[in-house]
Structure to design on (87 residues):
């Protein structure tokens, strides 16, 4: 298998996961479910960025993925703090 074919398979699986996660984000029965779905959506987006960076040999996109992961982590902590205070 060539790298391009493997990358296309990975991107299609990640895209399918993003579609299902986005549906959960819209329909989520509660706020914590939506927060987890948003966090998963960002994680899948990081996977897409990393796959694109490997496919096109662009290491700068890996830096973007790392920064996005850090911002996502801080956002998840902030949402968890908000939910804890709300209860």
């Amino acid at each position: 298998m060539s790298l391009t074919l493997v990358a296309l398979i990975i991107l299609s699986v990640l895209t399918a996961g993003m579609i299902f996660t986005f549906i959960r984000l819209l329909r989520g029965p509660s706020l914590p479910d939506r927060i987890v779905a948003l966090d998963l959506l960002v994680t899948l987006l990081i996977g897409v960025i990393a796959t694109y960076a490997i496919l096109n040999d662009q290491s700068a996109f890996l830096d973007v993925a790392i920064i996005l992961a850090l911002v996502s982590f801080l956002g998840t902590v902030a949402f968890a703090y908000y939910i804890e205070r709300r209860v």
In short: The radius of gyration is 15 Å. The chain has a mean pLDDT of 93.
